[in-house]
């Protein structure tokens, strides 16, 4: 029987959607795959796919405080001893920190995946310093630290994080058959722009609304669509005043969270992500896989995908004026120019970010660790 691999994240949703290429590959190879995360309604889909699911209600995405974190660590130690996996893969910040230490405590090899340094790197000096200290203490206990872009790995190294092994794996893997081009969003049909992501201030939503405010009167046949979760519990959720003013602008439509984003991507002319920092944004990869040009910021995680005159437009972060100009340029581009940008983007995804490439990279790391661990026993 193949070894047991444990995937730990802050939600069943995260494992279901963002780790799909990984657990598909592991199941195909015959591994026993267990998901450990807070239940959120998606656990049944994981079980139907062939994973075992173990609930972890003590892992709160936005909870903070030393008492709750100590309790989480103790819970993880207990769970790891009960489940006795051969290898643990941690995703998202709290599993990466406390899960890595817990895995070391019970002598189980582990991998920490940094999917983006995000909010704690961008906002609040005290929070950033605390997080960096926790990373310096916890991440070296992992056998491998995986980053989705080179900038994040360099940033970790600069703050003094030591690693037994560094690995760069670009993203979470895109199923290019699932996210394939269609004719719903042929660029000559209409000027529809799409923002796809959580409604957070760090995603550049304020700049997007300001840009739209500047130019909507110049584009009377253009529409801006927003798809993603508006989670008021998230500490970086867009402020109510900014949100209300933004969605009240002419021809702006908010569609909420959507399980199936393909139809929204397919009906869009261009996909926009004016984020302040990313790992490798899945929303852009999915859109590029479907042949859509993109507008994104010149920040880690986005600049790798938004290649000027090749896949779309790259603009400075936090600049509404530059974002507005890029939207105007995109809206005035010829259909064949947009089609070529979209084709280039799909090619970029195929060559570097597809499901097969990412899953194979993880599989090689996993097999290597399992072999090393077996040899040491």
The unreliable regions are 184-188
Distance linking N and C termini: 18 Å
| Helix percent band | 40-55%
The CATH architecture classification of the largest domain is 3-Layer(aba) Sandwich
CATH class of the largest domain: Alpha Beta
Number of strands: 13
Sheet of most strands: 7 strands, parallel
Beta-strand portion reads 15-25%
Count of individual helical segments: 15
Dominant shape: globular
Strand order, sheet with most strands:
3-2-1-4-5-6-7
Fill in the keyword field for this structure.
Rossmann fold; 15 helices; single chain; 377 residues; 2 domains; seven-stranded parallel β-sheet; alpha/beta; six-stranded parallel β-sheet; 13 strands
List the helices and strands and how they pair.
Elements: E1 4-8, H1 12-18, H2 20-28, E2 32-37, H3 43-49, E3 52-55, H4 66-83, E4 87-91, H5 93-105, E5 110-114, H6 118-122, H7 125-138, E6 144-147, H8 150-158, E7 166-168, E8 191-196, H9 205-215, E9 222-227, H10 240-247, E10 252-254, H11 262-266, E11 270-273, H12 282-289, E12 294-297, E13 312-315, H13 320-332, H14 335-352, H15 355-376
Parallel strand pairs: 1-2, 1-4, 2-3, 4-5, 5-6, 6-7, 8-9, 8-11, 9-10, 11-12, 12-13
Helix pairs in contact: 2-15, 4-5, 5-7, 9-10, 9-13, 12-14
Describe the overall structure.
The protein has helices at 12-18, 20-28, 43-49, 66-83, 93-105, 118-122, 125-138, 150-158, 205-215, 240-247, 262-266, 282-289, 320-332, 335-352, 355-376; strands spanning 4-8, 32-37, 52-55, 87-91, 110-114, 144-147, 166-168, 191-196, 222-227, 252-254, 270-273, 294-297, 312-315. It has 377 residues and is α/β, with parallel strands linked by helices. The chain has two domains: 4-172 and 354-376, Glycogen Phosphorylase B (Rossmann fold), CATH 3.40.50.2000; 191-352, Rossmann fold, CATH 3.40.50. A seven-stranded parallel sheet has the order 3-2-1-4-5-6-7, with helices on both faces. Strands 10-9-8-11-12-13 form a six-stranded parallel sheet, with helices on both faces.
């Amino acid at each position: 029987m193949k070894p047991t691999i444990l995937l730990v994240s802050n939600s069943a949703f995260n494992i279901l959607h963002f780790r799909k290429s990984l657990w598909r590959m592991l199941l195909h190879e015959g591994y026993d795959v267990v998901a450990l995360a807070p239940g959120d309604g998606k656990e049944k889909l994981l079980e139907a796919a062939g994973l075992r699911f173990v609930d972890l209600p003590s892992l709160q995405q936005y909870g903070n405080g030393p008492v709750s974190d100590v309790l989480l660590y103790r819970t993880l130690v207990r769970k790891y001893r009960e489940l006795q996996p051969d290898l643990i893969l941690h995703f998202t910040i709290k599993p990466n920190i406390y899960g890595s230490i817990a895995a070391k405590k019970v002598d189980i090899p582990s991998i920490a995946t940094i999917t983006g340094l995000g909010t704690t790197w961008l906002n609040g000096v005290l929070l950033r310093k605390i997080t960096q200290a926790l990373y310096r203490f916890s991440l070296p206990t992992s056998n491998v630290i995986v980053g989705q872009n080179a900038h994040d790995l360099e940033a970790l190294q600069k703050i003094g994080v030591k690693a037994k092994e560094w690995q760069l794996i670009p993203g979470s893997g895109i199923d290019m058959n699932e996210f394939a081009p269609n004719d719903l969003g042929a660029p000559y049909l209409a000027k529809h722009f799409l923002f796809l992501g959580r409604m957070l201030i760090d995603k550049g939503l304020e700049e997007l609304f300001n840009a739209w405010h500047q130019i909507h009167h110049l584009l009377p046949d253009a529409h801006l669509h927003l798809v993603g979760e508006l989670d008021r519990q998230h500490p970086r959720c867009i402020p109510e005043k900014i949100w209300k003013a933004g969605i009240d602008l002419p021809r702006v439509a908010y569609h909420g969270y959507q399980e199936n984003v393909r139809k929204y991507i397919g009906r869009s002319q261009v996909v926009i992500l004016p984020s302040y920092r990313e790992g490798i944004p899945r929303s852009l990869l999915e859109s590029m896989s479907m042949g859509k040009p993109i507008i994104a910021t010149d920040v880690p995680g986005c600049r790798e995908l938004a290649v000027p005159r090749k896949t779309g437009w790259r603009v400075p972060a936090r600049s509404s004026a530059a974002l507005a100009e890029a939207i105007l340029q995109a809206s005035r581009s010829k259909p064949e120019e947009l089609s070529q940008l979209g084709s280039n983007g799909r090619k970029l995804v195929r060559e570097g970010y597809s499901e097969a490439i990412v899953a194979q990279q993880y599989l090689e790391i996993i097999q290597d660790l399992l072999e090393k661990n077996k040899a040491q026993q």
